[in-house]
Amino acid sequence: RVEATIAAQLEAFRAQDIPRAWSYASPLIQSLFGDQDQFARMVEQGYPMVWSPMTYRFGTARVSGSTVLQSVEVIDRDGQSHALVYEMIQISGEWRINGVQFLPQAPATV
């Protein structure tokens, strides 16, 4: 399942289990970063809410060709909400993460 793969990677990051988090990345992502240490640095610096999530919940999923675009709300350690979309692809019957994008969020109303 798509959600199970994303949750497993988020839990791996939370546990600082970089080899396990790396295993959920698609071959494209793995080739872009070359090794799990560079991948970990990119996530820690570019996606700190994913690196150390307080909690997360899944939104809607949309099929686009052979990919699934899964929305995820991640709450970071400061209680801030971040809307993300995970691009998921199947490799040998297993779901892998092929990219993550930030979604623009409406400003909070006071």
Description of the structure:
The radius of gyration is 14 Å and the shape is globular. The protein has 110 residues and is of the alpha+beta class. A hairpin with a 2-residue loop joins β1 and β2. The longest helix has 13 residues. Strands 1-2-3-4 form a four-stranded antiparallel β-sheet. The chain contains five helices and four strands.
Work out the radius of gyration.
14 Å
> Roughly how much helix do the residues carry, as a percent range?
25-40%
Helical stretch tally: 5
- What percentage of amino acids are in beta strands? 35-45%
Low-confidence stretches: none
Major sheet details: 4 strands, antiparallel
Structural class: alpha+beta
Strand count: 4
Helix and strand element order: HHHHHEEEE
Q: Which sequence of strands runs across the widest sheet?
A: 1-2-3-4
How far apart lie the N and C ends?
Answer: 38 Å
Question: What gross morphology would you assign?
Answer: globular
Mean pLDDT reading: 93
